[in-house]
Amino acid sequence: MTPPELLILISVFGVAIPVNAKPNIVIFIADDLGYGDVGCFGNTSLNTPNIDRLAREGAKMTHHLAAASMCSPSRTALLTGRYPVRSGMVPSGHIRINTFVASRGGLPPSEVTIAELAQSVGYKTALIGKWHLGLSRTYGDNIYHPLNHGFDSFYGIPLTNLRDFGDDGDSIFREYLPVWQWRCLVIIFIGCLSCFGLYKRDYIGMCSALVLIMLTLIPVGTFLFVATNMKVLNSMIYKDMEIVEQPIRLRGMTQRFARESIEFLDQRKRDNSPFLLVVSWTHVHTALQVTKSFHGRTHHGRYGDAVEELDSGVGEITHALETLGFRDNTIVYFTSDNGGYLEERGLKGEINGGYNGIFKGGKGQGAVEGGIRMPGVIRWPGKVTPGTIVDEPTWMMDMYPTLARAIGAELPDDRQIDGQDILPLLSQVQTVSPHTFMVHYCGIDIHAIRYRPRTGNKVWKLALRSPNYVPATNKCLPICTCPEAVVHESPLLYDLTSDPREAEPLDYSNNFELQKLVDVIMEGHERHIRSVEPVEIQFSTRNLVWRPHLQVCCNFPNCHCTDPKYKDYE
47, 74, 237, 377: least surrounded by Cβ within 10 Å? Predict the structure, then answer.
């Protein structure tokens, strides 16, 4: 094409040939946002124009899935394209995430994240917001830090947002361990009284009695110290490797993350380098706090206000993409890490959790649809036709190979990659999901298998385990756990195409065709099990306990500092 012809093409069709042909990438991850909390997925009572716009200008994935109904394993799958069990990012007991910064579990260094793939082909990478995939295994090694997993820069929180980080005096222990302070005092009293009794009856000597008393006081005292100082010990903001704020101020956090993201984009405009930006919001996980301009904006209390503030943050960043000239060469992906938390209540009983639409259950509930069916939106100019709707099963793991192909990065060939390239599906070149079987875990246990035959339009789900609900509800108190799930002697079969609510399991006991279908699904289940190699469980009890030598803080021993850049943000 001659220069005059090129000029005519640009003037007539508005075609701009970018100097850098590689697409940029922006990934938005909401926290605990329900499928039904977003306008483009059916909500009519909350205003989410910026997320809705992304759906109009790209594709809405109505059958988009998380790899787990809890955040850390789900985020692991997004970043690695693999089932979390393959990297050990699953629990072996009741507690399913790192509750403390000073825990020793995290995303193994052997895993190759999408950020590392992007770095390998010349991309600048940044993580803004929540990490929650570990920090250190031994003192100061920062082996799990985002900067050691492919990100060039990091501004955000190493753990997650907890109830304790608010200003209303709430605590995660209020629900999980009611009257925990009194329980600790009772343990101390009984332990000391028992030791005194044994000593008075000459069963043990004074030294032995003191040793037993110390063995009681030290663990209980440590627990009391940690539980009463959760905010100081665990809420902090890192700027790369440095703690710049401790404890964090939640109000204005969305605006801070947006500003940091826009500054990163502005730097990329100046150096003309392709980029991967992951914006991992703290909304809408509790504690819920919003700025004055969003307080009371909706009829859904603090939760609704937080959803709209989250949407505004998305809008600020997508607007910056346009003003900086990145829009037409940037893939934008939006999702949530798991479903809305149905059981979440505030100190006054107010609902602080999300809405999962027609789907059963929510966060933490193994493999029920409400816990793993996510709002999924992707805008990809030139590849995805605006207004596309994809009803076929996809999931967050698919973004790993899809984005790798888009940026020209080679996938690791020494491990199983479970995600599939879904660009043919998004561009409507293909009409059937690339996944025949999708296996759904709760911890180390498989709770269900999804089956999409290569013909027809049916999607089937075989549930091996179900949450142990409070009778007559779809909830557990305070949250469903994996070891307490109900194991079905005869797995429950659902036709998700006609029964997305999972309301009517099908009776296949005397139905040859359905029994054959179940057999096929179980064969897929067995093949998957054989493909999983044993690894260390990162969220074992041993790894999850608080370890004083791993505790980090700024201005030791004060452990208080305020980010000077945002000292006026409230």
Answer: 47
**H-helix segments, 382-443:** 399-407, 423-426
The answer to whether 82 and 531 are in contact (CB under 8 A) is no
- Show the DSSP H helices in 365-444 as ranges: 369-372, 399-407, 423-426
Other CB atoms within 10 Å distance of the CB of residue 564: 9
pLDDT of res. 7: 37
Query: 156-165, 205-214, 353-362 — which is least confidently predicted?
Result: 205-214
Spatial distance between the Cα atoms of 424 and 116, rounded to a whole number of angstroms: 24
Supply the residues annotated as catalytic: 71, 132
Do the Cβ atoms of 111 and 89 come closer than 8 Å?
no
Q: Round to whole Å and give the CA distance between 216 and 191.
A: 6
Q: What is the pLDDT of residue 15?
A: 41
Is the separation of the CB atoms in 111 and 150 below 8 Å? no
CB contact at 8 A, 400 and 114 = yes
CA proximity to 466, closest of 496, 498, 503: 503
Chain centroid to Cα 416, Å, comes to 21
How much is the pLDDT for 9? 40
End-to-end CA distance of the chain: 55
The answer to whether the beta carbons of residues 539 and 545 sit under 8 Å apart is: no
What gap in Å lies between CA 213 and CA 366, rounded to an integer? 41
Residue 472 per-residue DSSP state: T
pLDDT in tens, 505-536: 999 999 999 999 999 999 999 999 999 999 99
| Residues comprising the chain, all counted | 570
Mean pLDDT of the chain: 93
Higher pLDDT, 19 or 233: 233
